[in-house]
Amino acid sequence: MTNFLETEDGERLAYKHHMGHAETPTFIWCGGLKSDMEGSKAVHLHNWAKARDVNYIRFDYFGHGVSSGEFTDGTVTRWADDVGRVIDALTSSDVILVGSSMGGWASLLTAVSHPRVTALILINPAPDFTEKMIWAGWDDARREMLVTDGVVYEPSDYGDPYAYSKVLIEDGRARQMLDAPIKFDGPIRILQGEQDSVVPWEYSQKIIDVVTSKDVRYTLVKGGDHSLSRPQDLKLLTQTADEFITQS
User: Fold this and answer.
1) CA-CA distances (angstroms) from residue 82 to 6, 98, 200?
2) What is the pTM of this model?
3) Domains of the chain (ranges plus CATH)?
4) What is the pLDDT of residues 156-201, one digit of tens each?
5) Dihedral (C-alpha) 184, 114, 120, 178: value to the nearest 10 degrees?
6) Strand order of the sheet with strand 188-193?
7) Phi, psi at residue 6, to the nearest 5°?
8) Which of these, 53, 75, 54, 56, lies nearest to 64 by C-alpha position?
9) Nearest to 17 by CA among 95, 111, 81, 70
10) Which of 109, 162, 174, 104 is nearest to 134 (CA)?
């Protein structure tokens, strides 16, 4: 069943959850740009949580899925704040964020500001992607288009074109993380597709150099792409999540 969380500004965040054993941490799925909570990894983790009787939440950011709001009004700050809203409203104990692509950036932003985030599982994480990947890769024509039209559309291998708005690019520029220490000391597990054409492994590996955690494991998945949704990839994801249940 889909539930809705009312936010302080009158928006509605859609979510689904499994209320597991009270002593387990809550795993929260933080999806990628333009993805929703019905993606294969989000649903696979939900089924895993039911089987393990673990607390689990998957949700749609503002402007995503069946949540309210226009996608082009969204920013990384807004989406990271949505993660915090879910934590504050729907959980009361330790939280483990599972962030995919842009959701990895939102997870890192939340982890450094929210004390109940104790661990991170990051899948092809893309912090700073709006500046260091999108803006850096644009020619002058696209940059001028952003100024004049307020949005630039780019093709996507995962459905409709991506709409990169001026507010998204400007906000992302202000929320960059890879140029200074990321102050999070909990365990971090990074799962990265070797053949990811969206977020190359050389890019996500930069997180290792700047995060303060001493417990970081980086797994390069042979043959894996950006979605990491093959059966063996999904198995690796739940095996990684199982580690934190065993530890708890």
Assistant:
1) 11, 14, 27
2) 0.96
3) 3-128+179-247 (3.40.50.1820)
4) 776 788 899 999 999 999 999 999 999 999 999 999 999 999 999 9
5) -50
6) 3-6, 12-18, 55-59, 26-30, 95-100, 117-123, 188-193, 216-221
7) -80, 130
8) 75
9) 95
10) 162
